[in-house]
Design brief:
The complex is a heterodimer. Chain A is mainly alpha-helical. Chain A contains 13 helices and no strands. In chain B, the strands form four sheets. In chain B, strands 1, 8, 9, 10, 11, 12, 13, 14, 15, 16 and 17 form an eleven-stranded mixed sheet that branches. In chain B, strands 4-5-7-6 form a four-stranded antiparallel sheet, with helices on one face. In chain B, strands 2-3 form a two-stranded antiparallel sheet. In chain B, α9 runs antiparallel to α11. About 1% of the residues of chain B have low confidence. In chain B, β6 and β7 form a beta hairpin. The chains are: A mainly alpha, B alpha+beta. Chains A and B meet through α2, α4, α6, α8 and α11 of A and α1, β1, α4, α6 and β10 of B.
């Protein structure tokens, strides 16, 4: 039965989210930086400051503030952003799709590249190709995503200016999209000009986020493939005269996917975290970029909303990976 | 020849990649009617009178494009008619009057009226509103409209009332439209009377403006203006260097020097109304006048500007810059390490037995802020001051300042784009102000009477005297006036704006 583990994981997720909400709420109120202090006008009196504090609901005790926030949150109201002067929920719904599209594109790219590299490395094991691949993945892993972002901006944006440096779309054109999922919508509506423009803007952030992840996938998958290739059933298939390519694809790959999937899930959450810097560098209008502004402005309601969204993504990804593991590995279902 | 499925897929992928890599790059922003600005901050809100973004001097470049101010501020900080064509007080300064410009239209075609002006002023003055400059707008009220003239009562004389009409939150918003669509509706589709209308906005990405065909003033120089929100300085450098943007600002000084050598680019650095200073808090060692004055005389500001900031900055000795009305070049606090050592010796301190205190600073908030403080601490050490550096975030600085809990010395930058001494020396040094660090009765007694002084000459002379007194007592350490680097394509002409706002109306084809 796969239903029971799903419910168990859902219950754990609710508990984790509640914990995250409490920790974030408390942490934001004890870390240095009072949002009201940043807004006080030069001629403000003590009563003006108190009025401002009350205006933003920061005048009550920590407990009462938390109660008000929790009550609102449970009714679907994440509050109003101090800096954007709009509902946090609305802003997040508007910006989240850009980040999700970026992350999914980076994941797809990383899975394709990493998978390909792992297969090539396994097929040509103990050759100069494998050595080259090991060196390449080591190199990709050694450089963090934000350095990739800066390097790509310099190479593909300045020295060989073939890709746009910033934004999600060419600002001289109107998107004309009905949903915030521009990339998916443009493809579904066969708006190829918009799709290409979006793809060009996505290219550098995707490379920056995807290259390190591709290296991780390549290393883990290659290791798992090599392990699987040493199994008796694979050796038997080899004795039957199966080609190395078929051995890898038909016999070893299935078993090697399990550990790769688990690690990719974990690494994907790091990729989502990496959007904060990458989106900032490429002025990509997702929640990562917005998070930096929110922190600078000490926009507490927005920070809280953003952290919750990141937490939901992390939990959802982990749950999805767990479920996929359950699907692919029957032993886990009955364990 | 028939293609296999694999070949078709490979061909499709190659075509897609080629299109991505070799399609006409958006870098080629060669449309002569379009100006693309790689801007350093996002515009979080389109209400120029409310919330934190309304008091961000940089964002005024965007607000001034879409909205008009009551009174216009010229690039040299002086004022000229805006939506008000004339203004003033009566002789005893108990009443004020304003003449409203005729034949102005809102972006939706509705006529602009004196009711809009009065509504905007009354809205700004509301105690429970979100206008950060409410303390100024609430000093007048009881407005009456007669034709195109508005009169009102002066509730408390505020000499800078009309100056603020040309700066932060001094904008006229459309009464009827705002009341119809509400605050959220206005944020979604804001309208003004300004030279440009909002065409498309993508938060954290770009803002596209189109020229207002009915604009009452000079015809906007570009049909389309695009603000790309690029907060990362490295990316802004890449934007201008690759040709993706026509103008950018606030790039590191090293990059500015390099970009000027790039073919097709030019630029300038111009002084802006932003200064670097060290707040002194009246506590611990800073209660000793000798220590304060020694700390001031031990700093070689010229060396800091020339060596650390590559010459990009102007040394100041008071909180007033040459553009401000209370600037007095005769007030100086020269670099004199010998005098600093003597002052310290008089209080029993020496390099062997140094006076100790903490100095707080931001790191990376302003150009070379931390490095400047490191250099200053080094200079202090030579004369007998041992300062411990504590790095804090700007938000923490605000919190500490409003609670009077800053360290004995704390680095900060201060802006004053209306150029009046109340907004520089006044709010930074007057004890009751939540923004002052030095709080003492002697200084408050000198500043207090100047707030409501109706004789302008006497008022400015009074502030000059206050500045002299502050320098003599060593109540603050003014360091330098910042300069703003702007880089742009050679075919453009950009007028420097002392307020620091890079307004599209100040950019033309060369």
């Amino acid at each position: 039965m796969i239903t029971l583990p799903i419910f168990r994981r859902l219950a754990t997720a609710v508990g984790t989210l509640t914990g995250v909400a409490i920790v974030v709420f408390v942490l934001l109120r004890i870390v240095p930086g009072d949002p009201v202090a940043m807004m006080i006008s030069p001629g403000a009196t003590a009563s003006d400051i108190a009025a401002l504090r009350a205006h933003y609901g920061l005048d009550g005790s920590l407990l009462s503030q938390f109660w008000v926030w929790l009550r609102s949150m449970l009714s679907g109201d994440l509050g109003v952003s101090i800096s954007l002067r709009r509902s946090v929920g609305g802003v997040l719904l508007e910006r989240l799709p850009a980040t999700l599209e970026l992350c999914m594109a980076a994941l797809q790219f990383a899975a394709l590249l990493g998978g390909l590299v792992a297969l090539v490395g396994t097929i040509w094991r103990n050759s100069w190709i494998e050595a080259l691949i090991d060196a390449l993945t080591g190199f990709l892993l050694a450089i963090p995503d934000f350095i990739w972002a800066l390097a790509l901006a310099l190479i593909l944006g300045v020295l060989w200016p073939v890709l746009p440096l910033s934004g999600r779309l060419d600002p001289s054109n109107s998107s004309g999209m009905a949903t915030p999922f521009f990339w998916a919508e443009s493809l579904l509506r066969l708006r190829f000009d918009t799709f290409l423009d979006l793809s060009r803007h996505l290219m550098m952030p995707v490379l920056a986020l995807g290259l390190p992840l591709a290296a991780v996938i390549a290393r883990v998958l290659k290791g798992a493939l090599i392990e699987a290739m040493a199994q008796d059933y694979v050796l038997l298939a080899q004795l039957k005269g199966m080609s190395r390519l078929r051995l890898v694809l038909q016999e070893a790959l299935g078993n090697a996917l399990g550990p790769t999937l688990a690690l990719t899930g974990v690494q994907f959450t790091f990729l989502v975290g990496g959007t904060v810097i990458t989106e900032r560098i490429f002025a990509f209008p997702g929640i990562g970029n917005m998070a930096v502004d929110a922190v600078i402005n000490r926009d507490l309601p927005l920070i809280q909303g953003l952290v919750l969204v990141f937490a939901v993504i992390f939990i959802a990804v982990n749950m999805l990976v767990d479920l996929l593991q359950l699907v692919f590995n029957p032993r886990l279902r009955h364990g | 020849m028939e293609l296999t499925r694999r070949q078709s897929l490979a061909l499709g992928a190659s075509a897609f990649l080629s299109e991505i890599l070799f399609a006409k790059s958006s870098a080629v922003a060669a449309n002569k009617d379009t100006l693309t600005i790689a801007f350093n901050v996002n515009v979080p809100s389109f209400d120029p009178t409310s919330g934190p973004s309304s008091v961000n001097p940089t964002i005024q470049a965007i607000y001034r494009s879409v909205f008009d101010q009551f009174i216009r501020q010229k690039p040299d900080l002086s004022f000229q008619p805006g939506l008000l064509t004339a203004w003033g007080w009566n002789e005893d300064k108990t009443k004020l009057w304003m003449d409203v410009r005729k034949d102005v239209k809102w972006h939706d075609g509705a006529p602009f009226t004196p009711e809009d002006v009065v509504w905007s002023l009354e809205r700004a003055a509301k105690k429970d509103g979100a206008n950060p400059i409410q303390f100024i707008w609430s000093t007048a009220g009881n407005y009456k409209i007669e034709g195109n003239r508005i009169t009102g009562d002066v509730l408390r004389f505020e000499p800078t009332f009309f100056m603020w009409m040309g700066f932060l939150t001094g904008y006229v918003l459309p009464k009827a439209y705002y009341e119809k669509v509400g605050a959220e509706g206005f944020e979604k589709k804001p309208i003004g009377t300004g030279p440009y209308m909002i065409d498309e906005y993508s938060g954290n990405a770009f803002l596209r403006l189109k020229a207002n065909p009915n604009y009452w003033g000079d015809k906007p120089p570009f049909q389309t203006v695009i603000f790309k929100f690029v907060p990362d300085a490295t990316t802004r450098v890449a934007e201008i260097e690759s040709g993706s943007s026509d103008v950018t600002l606030e790039v590191p000084y090293e990059e500015y020097d390099r970009l000027l050598t790039v073919k097709g680019l030019t630029g300038f650095v111009a002084p802006i109304s932003d200064i670097g200073m060290i707040f002194i808090t009246n506590k611990d060692a800073m209660l000793d006048k000798n220590v304060r004055l020694a700390a001031i005389h031990a700093i070689d500001k010229k060396a800091i500007v020339s060596r650390l900031l590559r010459g990009y900055g102007l040394v100041i000795d008071t909180l007033e810059t040459p553009e401000y009305s209370a600037y007095d070049a005769s007030i100086t606090t020269p670099y004199d390490p010998k005098k600093a050592a003597e002052l310290l010796k008089a209080s029993g301190y020496s390099p062997q037995k140094p006076v100790k205190f903490t100095i707080q600073t931001t790191r990376g908030f302003k150009p070379k802020d931390y490095e400047m403080i490191q250099a200053i601490v080094g200079m202090w050490r030579k004369v007998g001051i041992e300062a411990q550096i504590e790095v804090y975030e700007i938000a923490k600085h605000f919190e500490l300042r409003t609670t009077h809990a800053l360290a004995p010395a704390a680095f900060y930058n201060w802006g004053n784009a209306i150029g009046d001494p109340t907004t520089s020396t006044g709010f930074a040094m007057f004890g009751p102000s939540p923004h002052s660090a030095w709080k003492s009765d002697d200084l408050d007694a000198k500043i207090g009477p100047l707030w409501g002084e109706k004789d302008e000459k006497k008022r400015i002379a009074g502030w000059k005297e206050v500045n002299r007194y502050i320098a003599e007592q060593g109540y603050v350490i003014p360091l330098l006036q910042y300069v703003q680097p702007i880089v742009f394509k050679s075919e453009l002409k950009v007028t420097p704006n002392t307020s620091g706002a890079l307004q599209p109306t100040l950019v033309t084809r060369a």
